[in-house]
Amino acid sequence: MISEMPMPWLRPCSGRRHALFQPRPMRLDLQALHRVRSRLISERTAVINQIRGFLLERGIIVRQGLRFLRQALPDILAKRTDVLSPRMVRIVADLTSDWRQLDERIEVVTDEIETLAKSDGSCRRVMTVPGIGPIISSAMVAAIGSGTAFARGRDFSAWIGLVPKQMSTGDRTILGRITKRGNGYLRTLFVQAARVILLRPASWPKHGFGVWLARAAQRLHRNVLAAALANKLARIAWTVLAQERNYEARIMKAAA
Question: Can you list the alpha helix ranges (DSSP code H) found in 80-120?
Fold first, then answer.
């Protein structure tokens, strides 16, 4: 489950003194919208899982994915009366109606978040980073403002739990799993952005990730690769936000 956003007035720090600040009203509005959206998505997931559970108990298996379940439900309710009682057909139909209503509410909240994000300069700058759209940029700005509470991008990445644990022995440094501490909501969003980029290898060079990402893909498991790319995206996003500039990809050619 996606965790809630951190308390907005607690200023994160990295080796600095904790300080309190009062966020702008728009940031509070964004945080509220993201919390509502997160709750609605969790409710929708619960409804979908319940529908799948009821169907599975009666031997009806549907391919994973919202689209496939949505497409299959009308036929299942109309034709599988051999295993679905009239009462169960009504129950699943009611759950499908709940699903539809949650979709509509999520769409309304998402549209409002996107409108706010596109009207804010900081959000627009963060959206120049590959894989980052209005949802991630607005969540980031709502959580950390201008990003000045962090000294560097690595501190921000550590704050959302994307930095791997380090174990040192002698002159060797061994990297372990990511910490998964801090802001789980932002961490989830950055990992999702990384997975979207990984699905489009043809776009890696134009984003400036071509050589590094191609080499990493050859030696890392896809989940580790997604975490590593999410870490890089978080650092880049912080740099863009803190330095108030757009992202510019550095195109590097692979060595012959």
Answer: 86-118
Quote the pLDDT of residue 5. 43
Does some domain include residue 232? yes
Strand, helix or coil at 15? coil
Q: Which of 57, 84, 119 is the last residue of a domain?
A: 119
Give dist(CA 130, CA 210) in Å, integer: 12
Residues 159 and 111 in one domain: no
Check whether residue 221 and residue 144 sit in a common domain. Answer: yes
Same domain for 114 and 211: no
pLDDT digits (tens, 9 = 90+) for 117-149: 999 999 999 999 999 999 999 999 999 988 888
Beta bridge partners of 178: 164
Whether pLDDT at 247 is above 80 = yes
Per residue in 141-195, pLDDT (tens digit) is 999 988 888 999 989 988 888 877 655 556 654 455 566 677 889 999 999 999 9
Q: Which residue has the higher pLDDT, 164 or 46?
A: 46
Residue 91 near residue 54 (C-beta atoms within 8 A): yes
The CA-based angle 250-253-256, given to 5 degrees, is 160
User: Can you tell me the distance from the alpha carbon of 158 to that of 99, in angstroms, rounded to the nearest whole number?
Assistant: 36
Q: CA-CA distance, 138 to 144, in Å (whole number)?
A: 10
Range of the domain at 200: 121-256
| Dist CA 186 CA 171 (whole Å) | 33
What is the predicted pLDDT for the residue at 22? 47
Clarify whether residues 64 and 95 are in a common domain.
yes
Q: Which residues contact 109 (CB under 8 A, 6 or more apart)?
A: 33, 36, 37, 40
